[in-house]
Amino acid sequence: MRTAILLVAACAAWGADQATLERGQKEEQRACLPCHSLRLIRSQRLGRATWNKELDKMAGWGATYTDRDALLEYLVANYGDDKPLPQDGMSQDGRGKK
Questions:
Q1: Residue 93: pLDDT above 90?
Q2: In a designed cystine with 39, which of 16, 27, 46, 94 is the match (CB 3.0 to 4.6 A)?
């Protein structure tokens, strides 16, 4: 439920539609989680240009994207440099409370 609220808030803030953000979240799970924990990804607060450079860097290290644009929109909308840092209490894998 919290994720859905974040997605709706992000849609309003960045103008990205919810379907794009949902595709981006799925791409995060598919392309990012094999190497990174959710905690690592979701603790970042980067601007659009920096997220874009991170995706380029990860591609250079072998990451493959099926929907890079949606992933970028999702990362910026949810973990942009204008977003608050996550609260402590997240488990090591970032999937819930300790």
A1: no
A2: 94
